[in-house]
Specification:
Radius of gyration: 37 Å
Strand content: 25-35%
Oligomer: single chain
Number of strands: 47
Distance between the termini: 73 Å
Structural class: mainly beta
Helix content: 10-25%
Mean pLDDT: 75
Low-confidence stretches: 1-52, 68-99, 266-285, 290-319, 520-541
Number of helices: 8
Largest sheet: 5 strands, mixed
Length: 836
């Protein structure tokens, strides 16, 4: 590409000769015969810092000369201004330097800013400074990684590395307007910007700071760290820029419980951080230690002991609950009220809205989690409608935590006591003498919300809400587990309905009772469920009617024989057990369905056996997909959370044991495995099959998060136990996975067999932590499991489900439900039909 040059010379009687050079790239190979051919529509304004002395004759003459130069080059650079190079040469008294920065503005003759124009400023010692004009057509040189905001809150910072120019504009403002004299420091290698607020400005929840970071051409800079701090070094906050290049400090997802206390005077003994010195242009400062992670990306770790709490039967907020705190993020916006027995909490505390829509409350220093002083939290929408089903976690100054879920009134109450009310999942938690009881109340149709659960003297009482009664046609089941979710056996439970009807029973080995108990009268009104086979009386010579229907809904005529109360059915010619399943219904001679009847179904070569259920049905043959993942005690799954290496090992151990019909046990040689740890047998069992590998120091690091590459490698090793796997014949073109990467063959195999995908930018990110949702997706594909979407939607309230996996539009919704629910399934053509 040719470059054409012209030069314009000016002479002045009192001032040495000056030059202005303009360079133009000849894109279309045109030839310019003279300077006149280069005339176009652009103007260059030269402004030098502090060159405003109108009393000095030399300065006056120089300013006049500058004006003449600007006028002479007013029309130049005919087309494609954004790609042209403007070069100005200054004499020795105009040397480039940090204390002699030059701002150049480029506009068309109509006054329109020209952005993206590369500018070179050259001193007489051939020192060159480069940069690009911003969206206002301006550039300040020499480039520096520090700058001070002007009266419009603007600062320009940049660096040149490896012949590439990194030029950014930072705008700082608060709710009162633009902030002038803030020190901006660019840390390009960390994708970070530091903002030191000037005197008179501090980080304040009632006057939030907004920082916008853009490239010189105005393109927003996303996912950069912006650290804002007060001049005295206090209140350091780091946030991540959004898609508009913006952070707000403090973030809108946080708000004080009540009006803050007066801002204290700066600590004169505080360790100084980079700040604005008394000189007009401070030297670049060292970047401060970032002491706080970006709050927008924090994900709370699941607590081992969630403390669900008491909710008043009819919560009636008093007028003394305050004005509420408004918190919001890109998905949610709430108003949150916090009060205790004394009324609204007036001391400084924080409300934090998490990305998943749940809340964290940090209490003031003088408030503690105390069963005698309940903390009440009410959550409403912008229109003041209550928000149900939000997990609220409250933390006091001593780092004690307690959680509860908002009820239909939008209210959560902590900490736990001897009384609680079930949430929409039928869950309540009560405590007595340090013993924690998790209680689930349900009937044959749904989980029961708003049942009052109490514990006293080691006995539990359950008062059913209006709309739920004790009835043999719709029995009530109560399940009790301890703090570790182990069943609590032999605890006395009394259930009462609104009609004061009462049923009392002691929990069985599974921690369950079902009331009222159905009775058998022998006259036809007995139980239709259970294990008696014939109820009260039965038949000495049983006579059964059997109906067989195939997967297409067509009735199949079978040969039937009955012996010793067992039924054998033989399929006709043309019907086999392969690629088909059959629904078998057994009734007695009165048309009543019969439970617990042994049935064998045969074709010419094979046979399968099963027992009829309470509806007199059995479906055969169907493989059973057992649940292989569990959630946390607070009812969450945390789909975006990490998974530890031990948790990953547990998944594969369960899958292998199920396939092989083995008991999970074993001992590994890893040096960091606690033989009494919950994961010891899982890891020992997997090590036996070489599905897992440790590190060079013979450790396994069970509590460390498993990475994407590690989990894929485990998945391929698991798969190879039951299938032929030939690695090495596949390739993959992820931008960050080369053939020397330790897990390349595993990743290539898994990609080509259809288990996983990379990211939209072409990367795989093998060393990143894998999320729990990604884990179940890979496992489902590796084991050929695909959820029956219609079944899940129609029966969702009856399934094992999680409070943070309820939106069927989420990509992981059906994957998680497939992994969390034991079911029988017929799989055909990469689809799955569930039968329960």
């Amino acid at each position: 590409m040719d470059i054409h040059q012209c030069s314009v010379r000016f002479n002045d009687n009192n001032i040495n000769q000056r030059k202005a050079w303009i360079y133009l790239k000849d894109r279309d190979k045109r030839k310019y015969p003279s300077y006149a051919a280069l005339i176009a529509d652009a103007v260059v304004y030269y402004v030098e810092k502090d060159n405003t002395d109108t009393t000095n004759e030399a300065a006056i003459q120089e300013n006049r000369l500058i004006d003449r130069i600007c006028n002479a080059v007013q029309k130049c650079i005919a087309d494609a201004l954004s790609s042209e190079i403007l070069k100005q040469v200054f004499t020795s008294d105009k040397k480039s330097g940090k204390d002699n920065r030059v701002t150049i503005t480029v506009v068309t003759e109509k006054g329109e800013a020209v952005s993206g124009l590369r500018v070179q400023v050259i001193g007489d010692t051939d020192h060159i400074e480069n940069g690009y004009t911003n969206i206002k057509g301006q550039i300040t040189l020499p480039m520096s990684n520090t700058d001070i905001t002007d009266d419009k809150g603007n600062a320009d910072v940049g660096e040149i590395k490896d012949d590439k120019i990194y030029d950014y504009t930072v705008v700082v403002s608060d709710e009162q307007g633009f902030i002038e004299n803030a020190l901006i420091t660019l840390v390009a290698e960390d994708n970070a910007v530091l903002v030191c607020l000037p005197d008179g400005k501090v980080i304040d929840y009632y006057n939030r700071i907004t920082v916008k970071v853009t490239k010189a051409d105005g393109t927003p800079v996303k996912d950069w760290k912006v650290t804002v701090y007060n001049k005295d070094g206090s209140a350091i906050r780091t946030e991540i820029t959004d898609e508009d290049g913006i952070v707000i400090v403090p973030p809108l997802s946080e708000a004080p419980i009540s009006k803050p206390t007066p801002t204290p005077e700066p600590d004169t003994e505080a360790t100084p951080l980079p700040g604005i010195e008394t000189t007009p242009t401070p030297e670049p400062s060292d970047k401060p230690d970032e002491t706080e992670k970006p709050s927008g990306t924090e994900t709370p770790a699941p607590t081992d002991k969630p403390t669900e709490t008491e909710k008043p039967t009819e919560p009636t907020p008093t007028p003394n609950i305050g004005d509420g705190a408004v918190v919001q993020n890109k998905n949610y916006k709430y108003k949150v009220f916090v009060w205790d027995n004394d009324g609204v909490i007036t001391e400084f505390g924080l409300v934090k809205l998490l990305e998943n829509g749940n809340l964290e409350i940090e209490l003031p220093a003088n408030k503690t989690l105390n069963p005698q002083n309940k903390i009440n939290v009410k959550v409403v929408n912008a229109d003041d409608t209550a928000i149900k089903g939000i997990t609220v976690t409250v933390t006091d100054a001593a780092k004690n935590t307690a959680s509860d879920m908002t009820n239909s009134k939008g209210i959560a109450v902590v900490p736990a006591s001897d009384t609680d009310i079930t949430d929409q999942n039928g869950y309540a938690q009560v405590i007595e003498d340090g013993k924690i009881y998790n209680v689930i109340v349900e009937d044959t149709k749904v989980k029961i919300e708003n049942a009052v659960v109490k514990v006293k003297d080691g006995k539990i009482s359950v008062a059913l809400p209006d709309g739920n009664v004790l009835d043999t046609a719709n029995q009530t089941t109560v399940t009790v587990t301890d703090k570790d979710n182990a069943p609590v056996k032999d605890i006395n439970i009394t259930v009462t309905d609104k009609n004061t009807k009462t049923a009392t029973k002691t929990t069985d080995a599974n921690g369950k009772i079902t009331v009222p108990v159905k009775t058998s009268t022998g006259g036809g009104g007995g139980s239709t469920s259970g294990g008696s086979g014939g109820g009260g009386g039965g038949y000495i010579k049983p006579s059964y009617t059997v109906k067989v229907v195939d997967k297409g809904g067509k009735t199949v005529n079978v040969n039937k024989t009955v012996k010793d109360d067992k039924i054998t059915l033989t399929l006709p010619n043309g019907k086999t057990l392969d690629d088909n399943y059959y629904t078998i219904t057994v009734t007695d001679n009165k048309g009543k369905t019969k439970a617990d009847i042994d049935v064998t179904l045969k074709d010419k070569a094979n046979s399968v056996s099963g027992k009829t259920d309470s509806n007199g049905q059995v479906i055969m043959p169907l493989p059973e997909h057992k649940a292989y993942i569990v959630g946390y005690p607070d009812g969450t799954f945390l789909p975006d959370g990490d998974m530890s290496r031990a948790e990953a090992a547990a998944i594969f151990a369960r899958l292998i044991a199920e396939e092989k019909g083995e008991t999970i046990s074993g001992k590994s040689s890893f040096t960091d495995i606690d033989k009494n740890g919950w994961y010891a047998d899982y890891i020992g069992y997997l090590a036996k099959y070489k599905v897992i590998e440790g590190y060079n120091d013979n450790t396994f690091k069970p509590d460390s998060p498993v990475t994407r590459a590690e989990f894929v490698a485990m998945s391929v090793r698991y798969y190879s136990l039951f299938n032929e796997v030939k690695k090495g014949g596949y390739t993959v073109k992820y931008t960050d996975v080369n053939k020397k990467y330790w897990a390349y063959d595993d990743i290539a195999y898994a990609k080509n067999i259809g288990w996983l995908n990379g990211y939209s930018d072409g990367s795989f990110r093998g060393d990143n932590k894998i999320t729990r949702a990604e884990v179940v997706t890979v496992v489902n594909r590796a084991t050929g499991r695909t959820a029956d979407k219609e079944f899940v939607k129609d029966n969702f309230t009856k399934l094992n489900r999680f409070i943070d996996v309820t939106d069927s539009s989420k990509w992981y919704f059906f994957e998680v439900n497939e992994a969390a629910n034991t079911h029988k399934a017929a799989a055909l053509d990469k689809t799955e039909t569930w039968v329960k």
